[in-house]
Amino acid sequence: MTVMSEPNNFFPQRFKDAARHYTTGRPAYPKLLARRVAELIGLDADGRVLDIGTGPGFLAIDFAPWASEVIALDPSPEMLAAAQANAAEAEVEIRFVQGSSYDLGEGFGRFKLATFGRSFHWTDRAGTLAALDRLIVAGGAVALFGDRFPDLPQNAWRAAFKALLDRCGEEDPARRELRSPVNHETVLLASAFDHLERVSVLERRRTPLQHFVDRALSFGKTWHGRPGFKPEALAEETRHALRPWVQDDGAIEEIVEGHALVARRPAEVTGAARSSF
């Protein structure tokens, strides 16, 4: 099956204003998730990792202990500045490069793993996987990371928060680009990396209400989805919408599920079924 190249989903300035809210706003992945993926693909001190669309550097930082080198790639200088600050705080060595998936080429060298944290949908997915097929070493993988909030009592706040974001993003010009009828699994199954495995880790957290305000402000659609957008107004709307779930310490309980879809070349997966979901 062939998946056609997609429209250019590249919006390099989209997160210029949102970047400063990412570190405290977006949920970091459970640390155990990177370890599980590293173990699954056999990543060791000789392997290199390329984190594409690094954002605030969450995945680059998580994989630094498991790799010989991590290169973190992002088109936004604001995002790279946030990621560099986070890496310095975590005391890990990462090489940061301004660029995007459209810049992938032989000059990057070879990698055991390429990661995408909530960023794969911004690329020409089929074209990006074709480029990575030339950069990923034998036995290596591509991994798509994301998070979800399972339907549990601790996540009762989720519906109100999502409704608020949806209202804010109604006029976002990028909405069409983000709603491809072709899901990531279909694109991967049409690529060289068509052996798929899922890994997920659930983690209980208590998140300050202010971090939920930052979370709302970390979405590009909230900055681009309303004429005359005012961040102070969204901050107040968020506090009001989530007030019923704020506990005495000013925090909201949540259960975050970090997940990874790991894609490898089937001939390199010894004794594995072709596509395990």
Commentary on this structure:
This protein has one domain: 3-Layer(aba) Sandwich (Rossmann fold). It has a 7-stranded mixed β-sheet with strand order 3-2-1-4-5-7-6. The radius of gyration is 19 Å and the shape is globular. With 277 residues, it is α/β, with parallel strands linked by helices. It has helices at residues 19-25, 31-41, 58-63, 77-90, 125-133, 158-168, 184-189, 209-217, 220-224, 231-242, and strands at 48-52, 69-74, 95-98, 111-117, 136-148, 195-208, 251-264. Helix 1 runs antiparallel to helix 8 (209-217). The chain is built from 10 helices and 7 strands.
SSE arrangement:
Elements: H1 19-25, H2 31-41, E1 48-52, H3 58-63, E2 69-74, H4 77-90, E3 95-98, E4 111-117, H5 125-133, E5 136-148, H6 158-168, H7 184-189, E6 195-208, H8 209-217, H9 220-224, H10 231-242, E7 251-264
Parallel strand pairs: 1-2, 1-4, 2-3, 4-5
Antiparallel strand pairs: 5-7, 6-7
Helix pairs in contact: 1-4, 1-8, 6-10, 8-10
Q: Which terms summarize this structure?
A:
277 residues, alpha/beta, 32% helix, 7 strands, 7-stranded mixed sheet
The residue fraction in helices comes out at: 25-40%
- Span between termini: 19 Å
Counting structural domains, the number is: 1
Main sheet summary: 7 strands, mixed
Number of strands: 7
- What is the level 1 CATH name? Alpha Beta
Mean pLDDT over the full residue set: 90
Total count of helical runs of at least 4 residues? 10
Computed structural class: alpha/beta
State the low-pLDDT regions, or none.
Answer: 271-277
Q: From the alpha carbons, calculate the radius of gyration and give it in angstroms.
A: 19 Å
